[in-house]
Design a protein that fits this description.
Belongs to the azoreductase type 1 family. The chain is an alpha/beta fold. The protein is built from six helices and seven strands; from the N terminus they run E-H-E-H-H-E-H-E-E-E-H-E-H. The structure holds flavin mononucleotide (FMN). Flavin mononucleotide binds next to helix 1.
């Protein structure tokens, strides 16, 4: 059984959502594949604040009621991530970065001592045997240029937790005319079909 966690984060329910839907639609047809979907916009997480961060640092049996409630949010998201083999991220480019809704998810699952730890040789990922797929939708064209700080950021966060195998599908120039948009989306759908074959 291959368990796939599909995370979407488009405030427009837009192109990255369509790509994630395409991935899910093809993947669900495959034997032995199970999909979980989490829409980080519909089910929005608040910004990470001090009270929640501090709740992680208190031993589980010593937490106050409030701390228990706050820590449960991150615990549940980490459990969900741990229970899947592949994480698919539908990612819009907003102001050259990731949506804050997706950042709020990373802020909950990147937990020192749980999904990674610091060693004398630097950070070490604690998630094992997982891979990721990034479905990146952008109005302009940035892949491979210095302005694409989004892709390294995502790979850096995934890598820190031990998810080093990452495939990226770009749909770019989506605001650069209908022909460019249609072509980029068609190419991205084709690339997705190839990735789903390899699930
Ligand atoms: C708030 C906001 C900020 C955006 N910033 C950028 C940007 O910095 N660069 C870019 O190429 N496109 C930008 N866009 C266009 C989106 O990348 C494009 O609409 C893409 O399709 C977003 O994915 P989505 O349709 O899944 O939401 C922005 C769109 C919005 C709504």
């Amino acid at each position: 059984m291959t368990r796939v966690l599909v995370l979407t984060s488009s405030i427009l329910g837009g192109n990255s959502q369509q790509l994630a839907d395409h991935f899910s639609g093809l993947a669900v047809e495959r034997d032995g594949v199970e999909i979980t979907r989490r829409d980080l916009v519909a089910d929005e997480l608040p910004h990470l604040g001090l009270a929640e961060l501090s709740s992680w640092q208190v031993a589980a049996d010593e937490r106050s009621d409030e701390q228990r409630e706050l820590a449960a949010r991150s615990d549940a998201l980490i459990e969900e991530l741990q229970a899947h083999d592949v994480v698919v991220l539908g990612v819009p480019l907003y102001n050259l970065g990731i949506p804050s809704q997706l950042k709020a998810w990373f802020d909950r699952v990147m937990r020192a001592g749980v999904t990674f730890r610091y060693t004398e040789n630097g950070p070490q990922g604690l998630l094992e045997g997982k891979r990721a797929v990034i479905l990146a939708a952008r109005g302009g064209q940035y892949a491979g240029t210095e302005l694409d700080s989004q892709t390294p950021h995502l790979k850096g966060m995934l890598g820190l937790m031990g998810i080093g195998e990452v495939n990226t599908v770009f749909a770019e120039g989506l605001a650069m005319g209908e022909a460019q948009r249609d072509g980029a989306m068609a190419e991205a759908r084709q690339a997705i079909a190839g990735l789903v074959e390899r699930l």
